[in-house]
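Pilot study result, target chain (241 residues):
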Amino acid sequence: MLYVLTALKCEAAALEGLPGKHVVTGIGKNACKALEKIELGSADSIINIGVAAGASDGCYLASSVTDIETGRRFYPDLPSGISLPELPLMTSPEIVTHTEPGLLYDMEAALICGYAMKKISPSRIAIVKAVSDDGSRMPSANEVTALLRSYREDFASIFEKLARIPEKKDYMPLDPSVMDELRLTQYMRCEFEDLVHYCVVSNKTGKLEGILEEMRSSGILPVSDKRQGRRVLDEIFARLR
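Predicted structure:
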């Protein structure tokens, strides 16, 4: 099943007639209640379509999704062959009134990724946002509907590609013992899994393995406690940027 998630009814109105089960989640943390009612299976897919604040006009695939409140990052495995450009997306707990160039801002995508990636592969999740404003004003419902309708062909192409994605893909190619070497807390394990997902989808698994091996050779790994594990994980993040 393909689930098409929108935050607002005016967004959903632009997608009428397109395939999938359409769900209006509500904005911000209200989306959590709607997500809990969706019983995702491993062969299901999710596409979140909506408007976002940004400094540049256009419609974009989210190359990454960051929860501003928690700092957690997610990396959807974007379908190949899609003509839309990519930008990082920041999910804010509040309405954004100022935007930075090269970033998009919404209020739901990180919540959707956090829920969905516990149940389905990152290759089965796509986040698509059309820029409706720069944060200085709120677009009307009619403006939102009209904007998203102008990208219906792009949305239909993504739907088609999601339907052809294989059910299984290995997003943890590393030996699980690396978790013990880093002495990660459960939250840090989730962060590290997200990092490995990013390395797989961006072809940086070899670089990550090289960093880990270098740390073993220099005696950094295994770490002695969780505090040191936090520092080493932050260093790995920094070296992979």
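One observation from the pilot: The first helix runs from residue 9 to 13. A full batch analysis is planned for the follow-on phase.
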